[in-house]
Amino acid sequence: MNTEEHEQLSEFTQGMEWHLGIGDVSAATGVSQSQLRYWEQKGYISSEKEHGQNRKYTYAMLVRVFMIRNAMQEGFTLAAAAKRANQHKETMNLLKKAMIDRFQGIDEIDGCKAIDMGYVNQHQTERLYLVLKEDGTDIKLVPTSK
Fold first, then answer.
1. Where is the HTH merR-type domain (predicted)?
2. What is the pTM assigned to this prediction?
3. Helix, strand or coil for residue 43?
């Protein structure tokens, strides 16, 4: 998928927000409904309400609740867990942007899937690949035939 296709898919899916009730989020995450209400009151999470209806949470908020809950299980306070979730979101957004900007396709190198990250110099004599192996990811510079 090229950058233009990704942008089109992003635009298409933006209008397709999934909304979950508080009971669904509680059941999926193991965080009680009263805790979710408290977290929302404190501003750590948010929900959408229309015309006095029940709270509705987006998929992104469900992921945020998981992250906060996991951090708290590791011993973080609620405030520190929420801060950690914010930092993780920022990191993921940067990685997403970098991947969208650089992604050129998927190839195969030495029998392994390899993500083509494009040329590494202005003369276009080498391409950067992330080679996905069972035991981890390798970086490989591959000379081009230019």
1. 19-87
2. 0.68
3. coil
